[in-house]
Amino acid sequence: MNLVLDYNEGTDHLALLRRIDFCNVTGPLFVDMDRVPFFHPSTLTLLYGIFKLHYCTTPGEKRTCQPASFQSSETDVNRYVQRVNFFDSCPDLKPLREEKFRRHDPAGRFVPITEVHKMEETDSVAQRIVSVIFSKSKVSGETQVKYALSELMDNALQHAESPIGCVVQAQLYRTNSVEGVILDCGMGVRKHLQGNRTIVSELTSDEKALQKALEPHVSGTHNRKRDPEKREGGYHNAGLGLPVCCELMKRSGGFLQLISGKSCLTVDREGCRHTAIAGWPGTFITFRINYQNIANITDIIKEFDIRKTKGHNLEKGEAPKFI
Ligand SMILES: Nc1ncnc2c1ncn2[C@@H]1O[C@H](COP(=O)(O)OP(=O)(O)OP(=O)(O)O)[C@@H](O)[C@H]1O
Ligand SMILES: [Mg+2]
User: Fold this and answer.
1) Does the Cβ of 260 fall within 6 Å of ligand 1?
2) Between 224 and 295, whose confidence is greater?
3) In-domain check, residue 191
4) 81 and 205 assigned to the same domain
5) Does 138 share its domain with 273?
6) Is the pLDDT of residue 222 over 80?
7) Residue at 99 is within a domain
8) What is the pLDDT of residue 291?
9) Is 176 exposed, middle or buried (0-12, 13-18, 19+ CB in 10 A)?
10) Is the domain of 253 the same as that of 305?
11) Is CB count within 10 Å lower at the N or C end of the chain?
């Protein structure tokens, strides 16, 4: 694959995903970043995942990158690319890591792109990320951002069987928001949900599968009555991780974007929009959460439960129960 990034694709990963089918990367991989005047973490994390996948699946092939050269008094694109550790994605790009600047102390507004390979690590990685990005700001939302990051990393590591594990990045913005990216190159949402016989007939497209995955309690596999302590709060595999994250982002005025196969669903206060993409080999999630307007996770879960029981418990004057 010979990929020359367009001017806008550094900040518009969806434009890139509409144009390029990443399920089909064959031969040597060359990425030219030279036209890009600015990067958002989502495009860089996406390309990190692709270099990593290419290295893991075809180690004998060649991988090269033409770095971005744009510089102004405010921006040095390649320096940003270096600071997020993009060139750590595979050994072939390591020569491009040479840094002609001094790194700041780790406390700041963003963390470098981070790989996670084991379920046991997701909590501590999420904690490390929020500690870094919230360290200089006296704002709330750390708990919810940590929750979202660890739920989404858990999904990638538990469901995807991704050859590259999971890749994550998060960044605090001055607009009172945190944006995050979590991706894997595994089986994708549709294939995983197809293991659930009760819903398999409804999964006629990637779009339908993504919609299903966002419904509470659809995918749950774990019986909390039998093993309620399996995870803090007892919600492990209740089919709630994605829907709760989505509600959290949406209610704060942010968004959750769920991408897998040939589909992208973007959910925000305006509703849920579908965009067809060329192809992503796994699951790719980006989100924005406005930390000044954060909902309570327990309230969201209670509301889902009331909806599931259609309010029967409450009519009887009982507290909501999980089934
Ligand atoms: N990264 C992923 N790769 C493959 N399938 C995924 C991925 N993320 C989510 N899914 C699919 O979406 C479903 C819904 O995810 P969700 O996090 O809501 O539930 P869960 O992981 O099954 O349970 P819980 O999060 O409550 O422990 C999953 O069961 C799985 O089928
Ligand atoms: Mg989950």
Assistant:
1) no
2) 295
3) yes
4) no
5) yes
6) no
7) no
8) 86
9) middle
10) yes
11) C
236 lines ligand 1 (CB under 6 A): yes
The model's pLDDT over 243-287, given as tens digits with 9 standing for 90+, comes to 999 999 999 999 999 999 999 999 999 999 999 999 999 999 999
Ligand 2 centroid to residue 23 C-alpha, Å: 24
To the nearest whole percent, how much of the chain has pLDDT over 70? 86
Label the pairing between strands 29-32 and 63-66.
Answer: parallel
Pick the last residue of a domain from 92, 125, 157. 92
- Quote the CA–CA distance of 22 and 17 in Å, as a whole number: 8
CATH number at residue 157: 3.30.565.10
* Sole residue written with tokens 């919600």: 235
Q: Which residues contact 40 (CB under 8 A, 6 or more apart)?
A: 10, 11, 12, 13, 179
Expressed as residue numbers, the domain containing 78 is 1-92
Task: List 110's β-bridge partners, or say none.
Answer: 171
Mutate to test the pocket of ligand 1, among 162, 219, 244 (most ligand atoms within 8 A of CB): 219
Distance CA 162, CA 282 (A): 8
Q: Does 123 lie in the same domain as 84?
A: no
CA nearest 51: which of 83, 75, 85? 85
Tell me: do 180 and 311 sit in the same domain: yes
The CA angle 182-186-190, to the nearest 5 degrees, is 95
Q: What is the CATH number of the domain that holds 59?
A: 3.30.750
Nearest to 114 by CA among 152, 76, 142: 152
> Does residue 234 register a pLDDT over 50?
no
The number of folded domains in the chain is 2
165 CB near ligand 1 (under 6 Å): no
Kind and range of the H or E run holding 278: strand 271-290
Q: What percent of the chain has pLDDT over 90?
A: 66
With contact defined as beta carbons under 8 Å apart, do 187 and 48 qualify? no
User: Quick check: CB of 285 below 6 Å from ligand 1?
Assistant: no
189-213 pLDDT per residue, tens: 999 999 988 999 999 999 999 999 9
Residue among 155, 244, 283 whose CB has most ligand 1 atoms within 8 A, to mutate: 155
